[in-house]
Amino acid sequence: MNNINALIETALQAKSDSQKPRNYLGTSSLGDACDRRIQYQYMGIKPDTQFTGKQLQTFAMGHALEDLVIDWLRLAGFDLSTRNKSGDQYGFSVADDKIAGHIDGVLLSGPDGFSYPALWECKTMNNKYWRDCVNRGIALSHPHYYAQVQLYMAYMRLDENPALITVLNKDSAEMHHEWIAFDAQVAQKYSDRAVHILKASNAKEFLPRLANDPNYFICKMCRFNKTCWEQQK
Ligand code: SF4
């Protein structure tokens, strides 16, 4: 059995390795804690370590669960559109296609008491993170997701009505739904950040590190740790 596990994990890694790196700054990364890490990803610099087969399985499970949530929302009466006429995800690109993103969907209509159209975003997480979302709300518990939603609302021009974020607990199947109003200041702040990162990358200048110590907790978990701290500055 373990051999089969290993075969699957190796196959997933091979598939992942064969995928072309993005040649744009992904909006979903703009809420990351570190400018330099976003820059490395945008510049196509290879991380020190690749995702393990198990991590890739977890990401794939998250995507499959999102499809389930789409079915449940439709069953509950929401007209949720997730693909355009060509069958592609809705998305946008700006700054000569250097900044781009894809959204999970748009609620076109649905049960009374809500405003449409509304951007829809779905996340799946384990019990510990899900509980934090419920207790503190997305803006405080997961500010990178909050920034992502604000940028999507701005770039997709879906800012008139609050966006809905659905967070599924992977351990218990509980769901948390939160309506997020547009905050132009936050959207502008992260849009400015994108321009700043693009300019620095074009000039081949690396932005300051997040911390002064490679053992800082975020750096310790960063897949660019070695690359980053072996650089001169
Ligand atoms: S190691 Fe730290 S400073 Fe360097 S890219 Fe990663 S998070 Fe940023």
Task: Work out the count of structural domains.
Answer: 1
Biggest sheet, strands in spatial order? Answer: 2-5-6-7-8
CATH topology: Lambda Exonuclease, Chain A
CATH class: Alpha Beta
| Tally of separate helices | 9
**How much β-strand is present in the residues?**
15-25%
Q: In summary, what is this structure?
A:
By secondary structure, this protein is an alpha/beta fold. Helix content is 45%, strand content 17%. It is built from nine helices and eight strands.
Describe the structure.
The longest helix is centred in the first third of the chain and has 23 residues, at about 55-75. The chain has a single domain, classed as Lambda Exonuclease, Chain A, CATH 3.90.320.10. The mean pLDDT is about 95. The chain is an alpha/beta fold and about 230 residues long. The strands form two sheets. Strands 2-5-6-7-8 form a five-stranded mixed beta sheet. A three-stranded mixed beta sheet has the order 1-4-3. The chain contains nine helices and eight strands. The chain is globular. Bound molecules: iron/sulfur cluster. Iron/sulfur cluster binds next to helix 2, helix 8 and helix 9.
Secondary-structure map with pairings?
Layout (H helix, E strand, L loop, with lengths): L1 H17 L6 E2 L8 H8 L10 H23 L3 E3 L9 E4 L4 E4 L2 E5 L8 E8 L1 H10 L1 H4 L1 H13 L7 E7 L5 E6 L3 H19 L14 H4 L4 H6 L3
Parallel strand pairs: 1-4, 6-7
Antiparallel strand pairs: 2-5, 3-4, 5-6, 7-8
Helix pairs in contact: 1-3, 2-7, 6-7
This protein binds iron/sulfur cluster (SF4).
Iron/sulfur cluster (SF4) binds next to helix 2, helix 8 and helix 9.
